[in-house]
User: Fold these one by one.
Assistant:
Number 1:
Amino acid sequence: MKVVLCDDHQLLVQAMATALAGLGFSIDAAVNTPADAVEAVALHTPDVLLIDLSFPVGSGLDAARQVVAHHPRTRVLMLTGAESPATLQSALEIGVAGYIQKGHRIEAVADALRRVAAGEVVVDPELLAARPRAGATDVRRRTPLSGLTPREHHVLRLLVQGCSTKDMVAQLGVSPSTVRTHVQSIFVKLGVHTRLQAVAMLSRDGLLDTVDGLHGVRD
């Protein structure tokens, strides 16, 4: 698996590169600024960009936004040194595939990298639990659905209708891994773990009719 690493602490990023290389990862670049991270992704097209959230100059979130928009083959896993439910929400909304705290053992970081590369959305459970329900503190987020992308709205509508992954592949014209990625992202944004939990939550909040009435939107 090809990885680009970005952290403003030179010793940390070098140590992480050495440790991950020892676990079988191919480190395409280990850089220290968000701008260099975006440039390295454009040059190497890695499977995953592992990037810190905070930098003295630039923003890891802005770099992630650029990578998600312009280099869709590269998944983004963000590292954070502090709990920030609002930033987690922003990261998920722009399409970041993983969001984990620093302090994990390198084996846990490696596991997150592999899961993200395989199409999963990975978020530390404690960060997910701390994230406020949509609409609780921000009037712009009036329902749990407002954080979903148009394609995720479509996938959720198909989920509610009972469509299988195979059915969604046929209707959306995408690969099974892409469908699974959308489903995982929906689960993370809704704060659930299964299709049944998603439907139960929507039913409890009176949103099933809203979802079922959504028109599918293609990317």
Number 2:
Amino acid sequence: MTVSRIYQSAILNPGASLRLDEKASHHLGRVLRASVGEKLIIFNGQGGEYDALITHIDKKGVDVEVQAFRDKDVEPPIDIILAQGIARGEKMDFIIQKAVELGVRKVIPLITERCNVRLDNEREEKRLQHWQSVIISACEQSGRNRLPEVAAPVDWKQWLPRAKADVCFVLSPHVDAKLPALSLKPGMSVMVVIGPEGGLSGPEVAMAQQQGFSPLNLGPRVLRTETAALAALAVLQVKFGDFV
């Protein structure tokens, strides 16, 4: 039987009793039809996870007893950063979800020249909360116990001069450069920039190269933005991370 993994933004200690938040309680009590005595895994995004046991269920929520701590770590040896041109609707959700599954540490949504998504302050805040929810769900599903970060959307020209990582790539189907033969030590960072639907413009790719980004082409086929993100992250995990 599959044991549910639940994220809770709370201090967790063995032996403590905890009422799960509304979302988790609804998911367990109403969707999964969990019962008293059922085992869970709980994590708070700070590393490691806890065994837990459901002790009470009522209309208002679910109570659990926090049990033994397990110092489990499934994070890649390097920090992978995805700077992604904001894609429309569910495509961006898909990219973030799969990026979390593939081990990304941070997602930076970029407003680029060909980006068709424009967010005012209210919509930006709602979208950030939604993306954070996507990240939590992906961590619950994939077994990660440290929450990746999602940054606030930022304009390309404002962000680029401040972009930093030990190794930086800008993806483009219009360059010939392949992944260079180099290695990264544990704890180092690698960043990949991917455009939205329509890709990055020629001037944007040139600007990135002027800022020290290495151009990168993953092959002769032109990939959709959501495919490019997954392919690039998988390649980086094979080359520098923990894919074997």
